[in-house]
Amino acid sequence: MISMQGTGVSPGVASGTLHFYHAANADVRRIVVSDRDAEWERFLAAQAAAVEQLGVLAEEVRQRSGDDAAALLEGHQLLAEDPDLTDEVEALIREQGLCAEAAVMDAGEALAEEFAALEDPYLKERSADVKDVSRRIVSCLGGGSDAAGLPGPVILAAKDLAPSETVQLDKDLLLGLVTAGGSARGHTAIMARTMGIPAVIGAADILDPVLEGKEVFIDGDTGTVIVGPDPETRTKLLEKQKEQRTHAQLLKTLQGQPSMTLDGQSVRVCCNIAGPQDVQAVLENDGEGVGLFRSEFLYLGREDYPDEETQFEAYREVLSALSDREVIIRTLDIGADKQIGYFDLPKEENPALGKRALRICLDRPELFRTQLRAMYRASAYGRLGIMFPMVASEWEVREARAMCEKVQRELKEEGIPFSDEVKIGIMVETPAAAVMSDRLAQLVDFFSIGTNDLTQYTLACDRQNSSLGRFCDTHHPAVLRLIRLVAENAHRHGVLVSICGELAADLSLTETFLAMGIDELSVSPRSVLPLRQKVRETDVSACRSAVSDALA
Which residues are catalytic? Predict the structure, then answer.
């Protein structure tokens, strides 16, 4: 028996035959070309093909694994057209006469090294993304080949995997994943969690050739990897695996059951989605509605703004499919970590504190008007709520509501049907909005607390900077006190309050949120049933005083 210790990055125990991943062939020809214009055109065609491939792949992945996995590939689309990469490729072709394949690999390697040299952990991870995108463009040029498929149900071992390699693996055959390298915040780990596959990273000796084909167990909770377990260890791991399967089946029995605590307090458990492709996951996981429809995903991976009709069709499709369940659509939330080239936003030193979300919409009224028209038109097909992100002041809400009223008047004059029962709400994700929630509650129908940004702004911690570690404490009393303040002010004015950030799915905080009187928790579809189980096991009356004392 051989035991290794890595880092668990996606929970669960998996067992099977260990199979080594054989990466795509990255060998490229290195020749000098005579027709440099023609070679440049070859590159442009391959670049466009790579962008198109990534778009198709993103949609396929969205169907299987959700919007988080798809978003990584949509980011690769933008990276494939990165001006720094493109300019360097052009220089290598035109000035040195390199063939397109060699120019792409050289330019990609140079850009990857620049990212790898940065101190920011998030930006370091972009190094692997650049290499992945470069290989795809080379493949489109005819200089690379696809990796072989899986031979059967296996535990896959690799040095590391690029995002596009991970998502293209057959999920039915991929029992688990273990890598020799990687990062807990890297894309391999994110993809594994999104796909629901047990995974361990940092098992340095896993690629020893003598291990391939052996029976292996990996524990994504503890980070343990056992090759050729002895009978006693094997029995224990199989028992743990059985317990997990039993738990998964138990969760399925909760479908259709009310999300109600032991002492009779109800809370709605809804879903966060990115588009029509996620509706099936909402239905399969018994989401009670959509608490957050991230409309900005309709803008990503495009060369120009989506028009009113395009947006209307997407919103209508979701509202029609969930006609008896409320759907809250968040207006455009672009900026900060979600940059789109055709928006032509100015370069900012602190983009998280700059032009983003509602600030862009209020400064570009025609952009805002187009989106609102599409939303109101779609409201005729279901139960719609509209939510404004990144609010800090009362005047912002008044201006946004004024645009809503203008759109309603226009549609009425044009004879276009829409619902007159659309609810209006705001995201509470700035400390300003939390502190002013007593006044803001008088302007809206509901609050939705975005805990990701609220934590970031309250603690002055960049949530994408993994090196901050313990400083970015999502359970910090200051964050929880602000959430409680928002809930109290909301209820004082008859306004419903939900949580749609990552903390909504944190089962260690469920009792706290229920004790605060939170009306709705909105999570990824996969988190609905575990959260419902936690709600149904909770006695709020028994934990209310303890929560109150902890936040005193």
Answer: 187, 500
